[in-house]
Amino acid sequence: MAGLSLAPIVVMSRAQIAARMLRYPEKEKDGTDAPRVLYRDGINCRPETAVEEFAALRRKHGKQGATRKSPARYELPEDGETPVYIQKRRPNGRKYWAVAKDDEEATHVRHEGEVVRESEAIHMIFSAELASVNPNDPKDVQRLFDYVRDVVENNFRATDGTCGVQAKLVAQADGQGMIDENGRRLTDGGKTHVHVVINAVAMKQMTVNGETWEPGRKLSGALTDIEQIKDRHDAFAREHGADHGFRPQEKSRSERRAETRTVTDRRMAAQGKMSNHDTIRAAFETSMEDHRSVDLDGFREVLKEHDVDMNVRVTKSGKNVGQTNLSYRTGDMKQFVRGARLGSHYAFDDTVDEATGEIISGVGSQLEANAAGAPRQGRPAAHQTAPPKPDPVASDEELAEARETMERLAAQERLDAREDRLDAWIDELAHRERTRRKVMLMHRGLDDRTPAGRAELHSMMEVELEQQEAAAAPEPAHVAVPVDVPVPENVPEDVADSAKDERPRSRPSVRLNANLPPVVTVEDILRRRQEKQEQSTAEIAAFEEKARAALETGEDIVEVTTDAERTTAPEQPEPAVEPVRAERPEETPAVSETTEDASEDTEDTQQAVRQQRQVRERQQSAFQQREQQPDFSKPAAAQPEPEPEQPKKKSARQLAEEEVQRELDRRGLGGQQPSPEPEPVMPPPRRRRK
């Protein structure tokens, strides 16, 4: 298997909340700008909607939010607790807890279990050494990702040949590496690893080791036992690992049993801390090197000096009669941990590797070697990692191809941005014309679906943008004609300079550029408004005085009109009582004429005015009703559709005045414009009856 990379190692844990575990691998870390997620994929689900799909499967089988009662725990008594239970063994060797009798010494107390939430997901991590997978090589990372996907499908193979679970895979390259209990870094950080989050409910029927899981059953047993998963992984690496460029681990799982590493040990070692198990292992090696460690009693005394208690228990009945079991505990631990859980090296009896036949010495053999002065089998050596795999070196042809690809992608990106800008301009043009995009293009005879039509639209857009830039450019300042003020010869120079500074700065009467709009200032607007107000006030006062004199003398009242009304009003206005046949209503006299009899009193005059006002109101109402009635003389198809009103272009002077008006309103000097007089409404023409 020369040239093949070492297969990754696998660890496993459970998660009570699947949604949180599914989001964890893609959560960005603080303090780094490097991308964390290299690849991601889903098995029987989409990675984007894995949270919803996992929950839907659990909800389908009634497992969403399921709870269980945790088993009771038998622990050593704390302060204030009285031991009641003792551990016993049945004839078949099975252990159980029972209440101690009068002649028995109780050792443990019982703590009832709590109602906890069932685990919703299984979390597995496949980690590869830097010597096997280079995180800077995309092809290498893709090779590991495909390998892990095949391993997961093999571990959870359904009866129909497909994968029987839902899983989400995320590849990362930000591993922290492993650190031993002495703070030494065992493996380098930045290793490529793949997170696999598996739904804890079976999706399809699966049969493993003769046991069948139906859809909806919770994963357990051989499907979640890490040792069996590792065995199936080793078998897969031997049979199919070469297809992905991997070979099995140098030591089998049984060989690695000499020192069992738990998830807690690895996590705390990665953080530079020592777990309780690592503390016991370190104290074990130090105590075993002491000259007093030649039997169990001496070894126990030395361990006590290192704050580690060792419990020795000999089986008295059952098939394992005479078997010695060791357990250890530090001062921070509530209960003992079995030596076999720490590894075969920390158990009392020797262990034989079934695969290789190698004997792993236990505590009994190590103490005998110390007593005989022979070398003992020490702690298993830490895993030695190979040097990191070098980064791939690209050839000149690959660099040229990559450069060409980048240029092509950049050109395509610029072209897409140009087309997006054109589409936005077309939508804005249709919005300004208050119509839809398709209707606007049809009226203009354009088509945005053909290359020729889009080329024409591009030209129109560029012309309009150039015009907008030219209009937005600052106008050249007007050059004022200097006004020379004669200064006497005998005046000092400082006084002459001050006289020049106090010259009136008026606008020039000569325009240097006839194409520029006239300059309109705020003073001009205020002066014009003041003149209009004074003129209106004078006309109203004159009209009131003339009306008062007419009422006293009985003369006719003549309406005061402005200059614009004098040019448009007829010389002989017709009486308001007689309707005028015209399409557009003309202006009617605002004040009724007086009667010919000058001796008529004021009350009769006011009554006549009221009657005339009522007649005008009835005529106006009739005219409005006539305007609102549709014309049924023509068929509906013959009536043309109203064309949308085109916005009228404003002159440069109007634009300047509007700008000045906005500036006055912003400063609070705008005031209120005099409201225009309402347009007079004439009665509709009478129709002759046929």
Automatic annotation (TrEMBL):
Residues 594-604 have a biased composition (Acidic residues). Residues 238-263, 370-398, 487-515, 546-690 are annotated as: Disordered. Residues 370-382, 569-579, 620-640 have a biased composition (Low complexity). Residues 675-684 have a biased composition (Pro residues). Residues 655-668 have a biased composition (Basic and acidic residues). This is Relaxase.
